[in-house]
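INTERNAL AUDIT FORM
Audit reference: QA-55
Scope: verify that the stored structure record matches its stored sequence.
Auditor: D.O.
Record contents follow.
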Amino acid sequence: MATAFGLPFGTALRREPAEGPVRPQRPLGKLVWLHAPSRESARPMAELGRRIILDEGFPVLLTTHAPVSSGGILIVQTPPPDTQAAAADFLEHWRPDAAFMAEGELRPSLIQAASDRGVPLALVDGVAPRILPGRESWWPGQMRNLLGRFSHIFTVDEAAARAFRKAGSPTQVTQVAGRLEEGSLALPCTEAERAAMARLLATRQVWLAAGLPIQEEAAVIGAHHAALKLAHRMLLIVVPQEPDRAGPLAERFEAEGWKVARRAADEEPDAETEVFVADGAAELGLWYRLAQVTWLGGSLSTGCVLDPLEAASLGSALIHGPRAGSHGVTLGRLTAARASMTVETARDLAEALADLLAPDRVARLAHAGWAVASEGTEVTDRVVALAGRLVEREP
């Protein structure tokens, strides 16, 4: 019978307490438990889990409320309620041999119960310690007691390390490590098609409006009009936020006198094409590879639609507005590293695009963005090795 880590496919499932998620049978052998409290930490923790599986050979359970793309190799569950009964039931079922928790979220019942069972605890990507809302206790020293149960606390920077030490984490186990690796962010594309399209575009400058909402269409049209005065062969590729907007958007461009090609009609951007309208996000990996500059749609109006690091990891320089949406942490990192350009208005977008017509400027911005998307490999290597030692109870 086919199995995954000793778990037969088709095995009966049982439910978490309090109407929680379906819980599969525990795999055979050792098991590492990871916990990601937010969307920002879910991806690097999923990558850590993937690396533990591939490098150390242990199955991995990841608990998180965030959507996770794990390639099917992780066991992904929502965390149980932080009560003594739910924590005991969770730990009795999974029997983890080591646990890694991200950011600094402290779940008192789970941490105490795991520690009492002798599960080695480590905290990674530490930003600031915080007790799960609603689980704060009136008795003094609660946070100090919880932090004292971790054998390793790795923070993202020195400011975070100071916050943990001030909250009571032992100095000898608290150290700056940096951020975990984000994981494979490079969206796929067909190489033959990329090469063919690159030959077709030749030396033309290309910019991409990715995840463009209707509220920002006028801003992008105005920016492209201004850019063409400086680089008359420049091509705009548009991926609307809503795929069914592709047709009407192409008609809008055509009505305003633009030379338009449509992906949905199997048209190609020839030498006369000024705007190329794609019809969905499925081919973003191709467009990011072709565009020297990407405008992050939604960031001027409703909130950034797409993950900025997906474009940065493929070498496209980023321009975005002030509205981060659910990508605030990521855009904050890019801004701090001077790896993106922030604009406040539609006029600013046109000026930023004109500024990035200079090859040296767009190259510097793209390289800085790629560096942010690629950081953390050494940190992940270190934590993977630690996972192996903790599971085997080595010093």
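Auditor finding: record pair retrieved intact. The CA atoms of residues 300 and 345 lie 7 Å apart.
Action required: none
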